[in-house]
Amino acid sequence: MEFFKVLSLSEMKSLFLDLNFKFKVKQVKLSDSCFRVSAEDVVASHSWPLANRSTMDGYALQSKDTFGASETNPVYLKIKGDLKIDEHPDFELKSGECVGIVTGGLLPKGADSVLMLEYTERLGKTLEVKKSVHPQENIILVGEDFEQGEKILSHGTRINFKHIGALATLGIDKLKVYEKPNVGIISTGDELIDIDKMPCLGQVRDVNSYTLQALLAKEHLEATVYPLVKDDKKQLINRIELALSENDVVLLSGGSSVGTRDLTLEVLQEMGGAQVLFHGLALSPGKPTLLVKIGEKFVFGLPGQVTSVQIVFMVVVSPFLRILEGEKQVFKNNWSCKLKAILTRNIASVPGRFQLVRVRLEQKNDQYMATPILGKSGLIKPLFLADGLLPIADNLEGIKAGTLVEVWKF
Question: Taking the complete model, does pTM exceed 0.85, yes or no?
Answer without folding.
Answer: yes
